[in-house]
Amino acid sequence: MRQAQSGAGKALAGFLLSGFLLALLGAILPAWGYDRDPSFITVGNYFLCLAIGLASSFQPARYLMARRGLPFLLVFACLLACASLIYLALVSPPASAWWRAAGMLALGVAAGMLNLGLFQAISCSYYADAADAVLRGGMWYSVGCLAAAVVAIGAFNGYNVTVTLALMAAAPLIFASIYYRSGYTVDTRAPEGPHPTLWQAFADFRSFGAVLFALLLFFQSGNEWSIAGWLPLFLIRRVGMSPEGALRILALYWIFLMAGRLAAIAILPHVRHRRLLLGSGLSALFGCLILFSTKTGFGAVSGVLFLGAGYASVYPLVSELIGRRFPYYHPGFFNGIFSLAVLGGLLAPATLGYAAGQWGVGVVVGIPLLGTFMVMILIVAIWLETKVTGR
Questions:
Q1: Quick one: how many helices (H) and strands (E) in the chain?
Q2: Sequence ranges of the domains in the chain
Q3: Which pTM does this prediction carry?
Q4: Residue 63: CB partners within 8 Å, gap ≥ 6?
């Protein structure tokens, strides 16, 4: 039991690396020159390759875990991430954007493998208390995202982007060393849960409740990824901030998100979860409205404050509610309609790139604003559905 708890603790800390890898693209775009280059379609291609890498990593990760074990999967994912970052450092501008797109594809595969291994490692904690496990993992994830923003600022303060990316490669190498030297183990008796086939995903469409929850996951994951990936470019191009200033605002966003998750952990046992979910949605909606209309740095800080506070607890609480209604759900594995919803949400930053190329950078916050409004409507719809069905 102690080994299982130790393994779960190390896995939760591993979400720091996951956040670092997935937040890297949004933080490094200004250093690649896209604060001046209006090639938003190219940026959309980067996000698309990252999402494809994440989606395609599932089966290879399960194969490696079955053949070589969970520790090998974690070490392999870390080393692949390290190699991807070194490769991206070597193909920084003025190299062709397609070389960087290939690097983002490999980085997505590494991050996806790492995430599956981490969620497998925390299975015991997740089945014991889903909301608490995902909240704590989310807190470490936010720390990693914050670290990516802070390190990216170095590209404007004495280091070029190649050196910055090479320094970033040290992070997954450190985690690979930790997992290799510690002989990382996890309680293999933990239930992994069934893995529905694609037909299960279509069967879930017959359940109105499943459709509502899947739509909620779709819009919420799309909102979070869109803001995190496009916030610096939006602040530079729309508000007129410097790249350093925009990255500092991005760092503040992660700090507010982290503080919100700490507050959620503290108050979770004392408030009704649906009430907290509704309050979080209102806060996020208000933050989007401020950010969409602001022309000043103070407005940007205020917007990300409400956004961070609002987004902090939405996804963990939604995961918990889905787990109660649909026992096969686990956030790290394939779960029918819900995985399709999350994968669809991951495509949102890429879609924003193509939309921004057509209508301008304002859609970067305009579309998440509409998405947040949809989240609010879906929360109310789910509440009404539970009242009618009694589930």
A1: 18, 0
A2: 1-186, 197-391
A3: 0.86
A4: none
